[in-house]
Design goal:
Glucose Oxidase, domain 1; single chain; alpha/beta; D-amino Acid Aminotransferase, Chain A, domain 1; PEP_util_C; binds phosphoenolpyruvate; 37 helices; binds magnesium ion; magnesium; eight-stranded parallel barrel; 908 residues; Pyruvate, phosphate dikinase; elongated; Dna Ligase, domain 1; EC 2.7.9.1; nucleotide-binding
């Protein structure tokens, strides 16, 4: 009994009939699907699978686990009896392929050995098997198969350098006066086998192994070991595939597509993976093996040609494709081989597809009654929707990529190069399209960024100023372009030997991060036109618009998370509303202090007396009020969270260096530096070594009397004005960078006074809440909730402060190394770090709600529009996410998907 239990527990080998598609963890994707096809009664060559558990045991101990050898023997015997042949039998050999197959597809990363079982004796048996009647007609095929085995086995199992075999093959062709493998006859190939065996012996110090079972065992071991091959490790890191899954090994009876004109090999898709359209898609190559298709030695023909070549196999293939699609309820891709008129199915899987195809297929399958809308929603994702929302370059002319950088804000932008914000505004005013090129951007560049089609910088990553602001505006941005040398003074940049002057045209791709010189044609996005309201889904003939409309509509029905937007202008607010935003989660007020208001801010900072300061504040008040009136009007009836000013005030003053030079030059000339002198002293006084950790956010409000009060008054007066107009403004005042409840309480006392004063005539409800973006705020959320009517997580700062990473520097400086080392798979500024920052979020949610039940909680950091992070925010019970206007549809979709996935309706 005990012994029996032990064997069941350590079942390392499965016959195809024992598996199914849901056992991918254990049998790998390829093995699980081969098992599924076998059980569907499709013609799969017989075989068996060694499990990922066996691989993991081997990798842990360096030896095959106990029991594996016997189980392989048992399954091999079953395979031999099914085929009526023995492995490597000299008279009539069974040959097998030994292929890797992990849970997730890792194309070309691991090893495969074909024709296992061939040796000096069985090669003659194979020749007989392969002969089509004429004496010696199978010889060429058999010797070619044998030389392929030695080559693959030598290279993958014994690390013989592949070039040596290639050179020997080239020598044989040269001796024959040809460049085509097919011109080598049986004698040439027999001689080549001799040469290959010598190469094998030279490198391994032993002869090529003759016993078939030894070949098999060594090949299995090589597949196990290929899990940790350098390229496989790298691929897994890039694709974020866990390192400890191991690979399964598929051992399958060989079938041959290269036995003559009635044999061949091909690939097929049940729908077009590019568009999702129904039809027959694929390629076929007669008299060839799969490897020949990959090598591209001969041209394939469209799959439809097979109907003419071999109608019986073609019809059977179409029937099998329909069976598979009906069974998997999805696009399947298929590899098949025809051996002398007999069709064999070698592989299938749910096929990869473009973003457009993903939406179209999901929608068609709902129409066909194959899946429901929940499943359709599960089958698409926000990253795909985001791709569909950007205009794209038409690359059919193959333009040259002159450099690449971080695709920081997607899209395709074309325009004339300009190097200053002022020039961008000037040229745009003349109707020119411009690309603003800077080493890096700062708040001063904002007008130029608004005027430009796109932004190109030499420094910075996905959370640099340029990236964050550009994403907020939905503007194309390429950051940190390699080898981009920007010379603003000379009005040019150089890159890889090219010199680009102001006025020259460039094209930047903010999705791929590619820079092109000259104009590359651009196509607009139909999906954006739909969200903008200029395409009516009820009458649209574009299937993509119809599909997106239906699926996102379902997401809206099922999602629990609300979706707001980060917007600072009426225009952004209006667009976000069209895109489905249900309010503003973050209105940053600092942009409202730039441009011609800068001088007022200077006066505020330089004020020496209370009355000077009040004068400046009084001048700012009506301007601020007008800003809020515009925004509240666009968001009528929906909540608008206005954040009081956050960044250090010195950001609004001129640069220390420039001023110092000005003053010094004036003094040198004996002139009076005038106002500059006082300004310089103020800039010096306010200079900070670490401004991000300095006088900003609530600290600023507590230090500069009247500043927050002016903003609170502007917000409340704007709301009161709209109430008087019969509208429904819903202002929420948010205090940034709070770390202690006392900070918030101090601001609150002053704010409440102003609010009650202003609202005496027109009742407006104004909520007061705080950002949670300092770790201490998260850790004392219970106390802070006593003074806050809402929380909004500022996950940009929370990430910065939890990790101690400067958000403006690290991505461009060293994140590449961290990603390479696998310290994280994706920048924590892009996708929320669940373990660390996420833990702070959970603590704050739990303790905040414990102290104030029903506390409204959202997030307004960049993560609010990141698909993975949206799922996390759903999971921890936030009320809403807030993101840039262009990400609103993505967040809506993902908020819906989060519900479907957490309710476990993942049926695949
Ligand atoms: C944040 O820190 O996440 C946030 C939204 O504020 P900002 O990016 O303006 O610092
Ligand atoms: Mg912040």
């Amino acid at each position: 009994m005990a012994a029996e239990k032990a064997t069941t527990k350590h079942k390392y080998v499965y016959g195809f009939a024992e598996g199914n598609k849901d056992l991918k963890d254990l049998l790998g994707g390829k093995g699980a699907n081969l098992a599924e096809m076998t059980n569907l009664g499709l013609p799969v060559p017989p075989g068996f699978i060694i499990t990922t558990e066996a691989c993991k045991a081997y990798l842990a101990t360096g030896a095959e686990p106990d029991g594996l050898a016997e189980q392989v023997a048992t399954h091999l015997a079953a395979l031999e009896s099914a085929m009526g042949k023995r492995l490597g039998d000299p008279a009539d050999p069974l040959l097998v392929s030994v292929r890797s197959g992990a849970k997730f597809s890792m194309p070309g990363m691991m090893e495969t050995v074909l024709n296992v079982g061939l040796n000096d004796e069985s090669v003659a048996g194979l020749a007989r098997q392969a002969s089509d009647g004429g004496p010696g007609s199978g010889d060429r095929f058999a010797w070619d198969s044998y030389r392929r085995l030695i080559q693959m086995f030598g290279k993958t199992v014994c690390d013989v350098p592949g070039e040596e075999f290639e050179h020997a093959l080239d020598d044989a062709k040269r001796a024959k006066g040809t460049t085509n493998d097919l011109d080598l006859d049986a004698d040439d190939l027999r001689a080549l086998v001799g040469a290959y065996k010598k190469i094998f012996a030279k490198h391994t110090g032993r002869e090529f192994p003759q016993p078939p079972r030894e070949q098999l065992d060594l090949a299995v071991r090589a597949v196990f070991e290929s899990w940790n091959a350098e390229r496989a490790v790298l691929y897994r890191r890039q694709e974020r595939i866990p390192a400890d899954l191991g690979t399964a090994v598929n051992i399958v009876a060989m079938v041959f597509g290269n036995l003559g004109p009635d044999s061949g090999t091909g690939v097929a898709f049940t729908r077009d993976p590019a568009t999702g359209n129904q039809g027959i898609y694929g390629d076929y190559l007669a008299n060839a093996q799969g490897e020949d298709v990959v090598a591209g030695i001969r041209n394939t023909v469209p799959l439809q040609e097979l109907e003419r070549i071999d109608k019986r196999s073609y019809d059977e293939l179409l029937r099998n494709m329909a069976t598979l699609e009906g069974h998997y309820r999805d696009l399947c891709d298929i590899e098949f081989t025809i051996e002398r008129g007999k069709l064999w199915m070698l592989q299938t899987r749910v096929g990869k597809r473009t973003a457009a195809a993903a939406f179209n297929i999901a929608n068609h399958l709902v129409d066909e009654g194959m899946i429901d809308l929940d499943e359709a929603l599960h089958r698409v994702n926000g990253a795909q929707l985001a791709q569909l929302m950007f205009p794209r370059f038409d690359l059919s002319g193959s333009p040259e990529v002159v450099t690449t950088g971080v695709g920081a804000s997607p899209g395709a932008a074309v325009g004339r190069v300009v190097f200053t914000s002022a020039r961008a505004v000037e040229l745009a005013g003349q109707g020119e399209r411009v690309i603003l090129v800077r080493r890096e951007t700062n708040p001063d560049d904002l007008p130029g960024m608004i005027a430009a089609q796109g932004i190109l910088t030499a420094r910075g990553g996905k959370t640099s100023h340029a990236a964050v602001v550009a994403r907020g505006m939905g503007k194309t941005c390429l950051c940190g372009a390699d080898n981009l040398d920007v010379d603003v003074k000379a009005g040019r940049f150089t890159v890889g030997g090219h010199v680009v002057n102001e006025g020259d045209i460039v094209s930047i791709d903010g999705t791929s991060g590619c820079l092109y010189l000259g104009e590359v044609p651009v196509r607009p996005s139909e999906v954006v036109q739909y969200f903008e309201g200029s395409v009516d889904p009820a009458t649209s003939t574009d299937p993509l618009v119809v599909a997106v409309h239906r699926i996102i509509g379902h997401a809206d029905e099922v999602r629990r998370l609300r979706v707001r937007t980060n917007a600072d202008t009426g225009e952004d607010a209006a667009r976000a509303r069209r895109f489905g935003a249900e309010g503003i989660g973050l209105c940053r007020t600092e942009h409202m202090f730039l441009g011609d208001r800068r001088e007022l801010v200077e006066r505020l900072i330089l004020a020496r007396t209370e009355s000077e300061r009040n004068e400046a504040l009084d001048a700012l008040l009506p301007l601020q009020r007008a800003d809020f009136v515009e925004i509240f009007r666009e968001m009528d009836g929906l909540p608008v969270t206005v954040r009081l000013i956050d960044p250090p005030l010195h950001e609004f003053l001129p640069s220390l260096e420039e001023l110092a030079v000005h003053v010094a030059v004036a003094q040198e000339r004996g002139e009076d530096p005038g106002k500059d002198q006082a300004l310089l002293a103020a800039v010096r006084r306010m200079h900070e070594q670490n401004p991000m950790l300095g006088l900003r956010g609530v600290r600023l409000g507590l230090v500069i009397p009247g500043l927050f009060a002016m903003q609170v008054r502007a917000i409340t007066e704007a709301a009161a004005q709209l109430v008087a107009e019969g509208r429904d403004p819903r202002p929420e005042i948010m205090v940034p960078l709070v770390g202690a409840v006392q900070e918030l309480e101090t601001v609150r006392v002053e704010a409440e006074k102003i609010i009650s004063e202003v609202t005496r005539e027109h009742a407006v409800e104004v909520l007061i809440g705080t950002m949670i973006e300092v770790p201490r705020a998260a850790l004392t959320a219970g106390q802070i909730a006593e003074a806050a009517e809402f929380f909004s997580f500022g996950t940009n700062d929370l990430t910065q402060m939890a990790w101690g990473f400067s958000r403006d520097d690290v991505e461009g400086a060293f994140f590449w190394r961290y990603l390479e080392l696998g310290i994280f798979g994706i920048s924590p500024f892009e996708s929320l770090d669940r373990d660390g920052v996420g833990r702070l979020v959970r603590i704050a949610v739990d303790e905040g709600r414990a102290a104030r039940p029903g506390l409204k909680i959202g997030v307004c950091g960049e993560h609010g529009g990141d698909p993975e992070s949206v799922h996390f925010f759903h999971e921890v019970g936030l009320d809403y996410v807030s993101c840039s206007p262009f990400r609103v549809p993505v967040a809506r979709l993902e908020a819906g998907r989060a519900v479907i996935e957490s309710s476990g309706s993942d049926s695949r």
